[in-house]
Amino acid sequence: MGANLRPLMTALNIDRPQETLKVSKSMELFKIRDPMDEMVEYNMGTIRQQFSARFRWMKTIVYDFSVDPEGLFHYFWERCLIAMVVCTFFLNTYVGFFQSYDDLLGLNTRINSGLTNDEINAVATSGIMLIFFDYVMDIFFIVDYGLNFVTQIVTANGKITDHRTMALTYLKSWGCYTDLLAVFPIEIFAVAGLAGDGGAKRVFKLLGYLKVNRALRVLTLPNFFDHIGADLNNSITHVRIMKFTMYIAMFTQMCAVALFLTACDPSECYGTMETSWGVDYPPGMVKPDSRNTAENASYSYRYTSAMYYATELMTSVGYGDLYPHNVLEQMVVTLVVLVGAVMYGYVLASLTATVANLDVPRTEFQERLFALIRLMDANKLTKNIQNRAIDSVALLWSVNQGEEIPGVKKMTEDMPHHLMEDIQVDDLVHLVAGVPIFKNIEDNILRCLAPAVRRYLFPPDEYIVQQGDLIPELFVVRRGFCHMFHPDQSSVCVAVVGSGMYFGELGFLFNKNEILTVKTVTHCEVIALPRAAFDDVAANVEWLRHQIDAISQDRAYYDDLLLAAKEAKPYVKKGRRQSATRLSEDEKRKQRFRDDLKVANVSRVGALLCKLLRSQTIPMDSRFLMVWEMVRITIAVMQFMVIMIQNAFQIDELSLMITLWLVDIYAFVDIYIKFHVQYINDMNVTVTHPYRTAQRYLTSNCLIDLAGCAPFEFIIWGMAPNGDVVSPARAECLHWMTMIRMNRLLQIYRVPLAFHYLENNIKINTAKVHIFKYCLYFGLFITFVSCIPLIVQCPPLPCALSDAGCFAEINV
């Protein structure tokens, strides 16, 4: 008779010990020891056995510890390390090759005595903080090096958690030794080797070179980008842009180091004007000061100069004022040019392929649409039929976004059968909810019917069913509204079919011709169940087959349907509350606005603000809105160019300022109009109430539109000095005003939105749109890069806004 020792072991905090039996690299079995043996060992064993039994949980924790590469900890740890890797690379390469640690700590500054003691202490403190920050990141790298030995290995059969296998796998990889070299503190051992008189100074002078090995951590970047690029949840476009941006910056840094090392070291630059580009004239790597000595050159200027010339050489745009003087410099230039050509060629090719693959579904869909248009033109079909066909095909794209392409297998067909059924059961839920004969149907029957359900998309004013059609399908409207017309009077609407309502029971139940005509009013999504597919499923369900057969053979039910259709009365829209007095059309519109506002549960403040809105809204496809938006975008482009040129060349004509202020009035009118533009919500329903349209605009583009036309320059007008200032002071004040007016450049954001709208229209040939877009972008870019250097070089003077002004002559 056995005893249950689990409560006793739980009370004594004793875990059931287990032994691991390794079956294969990715499979382990656990052998659980007998609790009685463990109990005896815990109480009656030797001191060593008791100690081992008491602290076995610590051994278990150590043995079971491993890092899951797909876990949350590894996700954040990896990304934090990547940020520190990038920071370490740029920090150590800059300090190591462009500024030594003895200068960073202010040792040379004390010798030169060019600064006060407070300034020297500030320099030394900043250097100490920088070194401390660098060594703190080294601690994280050392911890990561240890965690790599216990990181689980992902295989096709699962994850390997055996410590020996994880450690051996990491030891056999190159990353183990490059990571070790990257965290090895060479500078610490150099202190002992250079001990003696002046040893500390020599260590600080070489410390930057000795710590460059930390930059080897960048070798982990390719694996990181491959890992996140393989994840389908990440956008491959964003991953590649981030990867190439980082690679370009790092390669430019390394090429700048190579250029700088051929002529200088962190302490001094050597060579003459005829032998090296590191001299003072012509302008090279260093900036000459008043004494024209390279030793006093600015470290930051050395770095920016080297980066500038490295970028110039890597992009193969020429030497400019910098050219090689000797064989070493020529070899370095050749290497830099080749590296830049290969790198930028690879980056451009990859980005081009990425952009080209973004529109593959759209291009394939559009080719079929244009082929249909050419076929209809060749057969000389009427424009009305062509437009109906184009709208119907375009509706497929707008809803499915390329998941369903005519004549191409759907992506869902490659999914597992049960997963596809789970996705399609959602359609059947709407079918069951609307049809009485399918009430209380079991889930297993729903899953069997799921593959047979079809979905149809209809544009407005399109027939779904016409009188006389023999369609053995049952239709249920999922979204949208349809009109049902009288069988004898085809122009009389007898019902409005909305979401959840069904029709087509004559063809589905009795296999008879339809007597009613159903036509769409809005965009409609209709799901249908064919009778043949339903019979295949019902053949295995006795009660369902019996129920459908009984209804199909009920002649009285069929006659009732015919009689109800023929005696249907014209549909009358439910009227609104009648007024005691006769109202004009404008008053009726205002009354409807107030009634809808009460339904929306608007606060008192919101209701007060709604009085500023018009009771009518603007349809999205109205010609007025299209023309207005075209004019608005044209004005935004012209305003961008004019403001850039005005600031670059300091054009202070009052007539130009007045013209631009008139454009601002147009922008404020545009903001008011945007409060009244209709939109389609998440349920594909067009929202027409002014309160809802205004609410949507306030939460989208309203703030950036207000910031892009706010007259901040009038603040400068009020800060201008009093009195009649002579022409130079007046020009400087106007210069300030033109600079403040640069917030109008924000209005250019409308241009990419407009092109995005045109490119998403499947009925438009995007080739011409792309040509026009790139030409316009090129013109805007040329204007920007031509004017921005002049704007930066000639900023307005701050003294222009003081009472004294920048000029002595002031007429009182």
TrEMBL record:
<dbReference type="Pfam" id="PF00520">
    <property type="entry name" value="Ion_trans"/>
</dbReference>
<keyword id="KW-0813">Transport</keyword>
<feature type="domain" description="Cyclic nucleotide-binding">
    <location>
        <begin position="437"/>
        <end position="537"/>
    </location>
</feature>
<dbReference type="InterPro" id="IPR050866">
    <property type="entry name" value="CNG_cation_channel"/>
</dbReference>
<dbReference type="Pfam" id="PF00027">
    <property type="entry name" value="cNMP_binding"/>
</dbReference>
<dbReference type="GO" id="GO:0005221">
    <property type="term" value="F:intracellularly cyclic nucleotide-activated monoatomic cation channel activity"/>
</dbReference>
<protein>
    <recommendedName>
        <fullName>Cyclic nucleotide-binding domain-containing protein</fullName>
    </recommendedName>
</protein>
<dbReference type="InterPro" id="IPR003938">
    <property type="entry name" value="K_chnl_volt-dep_EAG/ELK/ERG"/>
</dbReference>
<feature type="transmembrane region" description="Helical">
    <location>
        <begin position="244"/>
        <end position="263"/>
    </location>
</feature>
<feature type="transmembrane region" description="Helical">
    <location>
        <begin position="80"/>
        <end position="100"/>
    </location>
</feature>
<keyword id="KW-0812">Transmembrane</keyword>
<keyword id="KW-0472">Membrane</keyword>
<dbReference type="InterPro" id="IPR018490">
    <property type="entry name" value="cNMP-bd_dom_sf"/>
</dbReference>
<dbReference type="GO" id="GO:0044877">
    <property type="term" value="F:protein-containing complex binding"/>
</dbReference>
<feature type="transmembrane region" description="Helical">
    <location>
        <begin position="120"/>
        <end position="143"/>
    </location>
</feature>
<dbReference type="InterPro" id="IPR000595">
    <property type="entry name" value="cNMP-bd_dom"/>
</dbReference>
<feature type="transmembrane region" description="Helical">
    <location>
        <begin position="655"/>
        <end position="673"/>
    </location>
</feature>
<feature type="transmembrane region" description="Helical">
    <location>
        <begin position="630"/>
        <end position="649"/>
    </location>
</feature>
<dbReference type="GO" id="GO:0005249">
    <property type="term" value="F:voltage-gated potassium channel activity"/>
</dbReference>
<dbReference type="GO" id="GO:0016020">
    <property type="term" value="C:membrane"/>
</dbReference>
<dbReference type="InterPro" id="IPR005821">
    <property type="entry name" value="Ion_trans_dom"/>
</dbReference>
<dbReference type="InterPro" id="IPR014710">
    <property type="entry name" value="RmlC-like_jellyroll"/>
</dbReference>
<feature type="transmembrane region" description="Helical">
    <location>
        <begin position="771"/>
        <end position="792"/>
    </location>
</feature>
<keyword id="KW-1133">Transmembrane helix</keyword>
<keyword id="KW-0407">Ion channel</keyword>
<keyword id="KW-0406">Ion transport</keyword>
<feature type="transmembrane region" description="Helical">
    <location>
        <begin position="331"/>
        <end position="358"/>
    </location>
</feature>
<keyword id="KW-1071">Ligand-gated ion channel</keyword>
